[in-house]
Amino acid sequence: MNKKIVIGTCLMALAATSMFAAKKGKQGKVLNIYVWNDEFTSRFNDYYASKLPKDVKVNFIQTPNQNNAYQDKLDEALLKQAKAAADDKIDIFLVEADYALKYVDSAYSLDVMKDVGLKKKDLANQFQYTKDVMTDSKGKLKGVSWQACPGGFVYRRSMAKELLGTDDPAKVQEALADWDKFDAVAAKAKAAGYFMVSGYDDTFRVFSDNVKSPWVKGNKIVVDEQIKRWVKQTKEYTDKGYNNKTSLWSAEWSNEMMKDGKVFGYFGPAWFVDFSMPHGDGSAFGDWAFCKGPQGFSWGGTWICAAAGTDNIDIIKDMMLTLTCDKETMVAIAKGAGDFTNNQPAMAEVAKSDYKNDFLGGQNHMEFFIGSAASVSKDCMSKYDQGMNEGIQQAMKDYFDGKVSEEEAWTNFYTIVQEKYPQLKK
Question: I need a labelling partner for 52 at 20 to 30 A (CA). Which of 76, 224, 323, 421 fits?
């Protein structure tokens, strides 16, 4: 059997067990944190590390997300957790929305309230969807986040003035308020020598986050109408030249964000402008702004899980309280790091403040994110999301490129996902 399937099955099989006890009392001197990039590392170092006891050593074990490498390394370590020496045990690990349920529904993540010690009142001001993502089938909260990730359309101000006569976010939003209007502006952009979006994957998260059904019901694969709309629109945009035929994260995709790029805009949340868009020489720094776009959506997010078997419960509790519940810290992270933080009063305060984002031409983009964050629903999440989302984008690329028919692309999609999840039926 495939190694990844074995590990995943082991994790899921432990959902109803209590393999490890949360160790309270004497605290350990080594805090091991599993991460896939330096985002949480920087938030931890900038906004919490000074509170640590002087004799506690922190180890960040970083493995890139690509090709499932982070999950593979984390899974292997979790399988050894029970027998690992105290200083080698995982204390904290991070998860993303696409695969969060795999760890939520396992005995490797501790109950944030019962085991770690946070109270309902501590969590009251967090956006509800961020808690729903990390709540298991028995109602236990298994992780918390310092951020919420509602998304919008980040567009070039200079192109908006040329195409729409204004770069004001409220007026640009009027022009992009639904997909019919968005398509009309795409035609204008094409006529002016621009691309509405960069490539095949740019609108995917908007559609996939608005599905009415999870990818899998029982053991049957379900393709929601929103996914079908993404396929239809992307094929039309490719054939009409409304996109530049790039793929997400590719050099061609990111190069269009530079000053001489021809792409009107990109869909993303607050983290997108900090971690995905160039800020240095030759960039379009200051020539961007956010609006909501044709549909509200969210993308991503990072959740902090306490690992079963940790001997640092007191530190983890204090860290979770500070980084995800404390309003003052949430305001500081928002203003200092540009995150839309997971605290409603904090975001209301920042939205009404004189905060300005220089990359966004001085815009305070937090205000329009508030309504989106409050309306986000994750009712259709499943443990198959990452594999399904990657599979559909991979399979449809050849169709968009004209290499295969749509029917062949769908056949390829089912082949890809059934190889990854052989228990699923078409």
Answer: 76
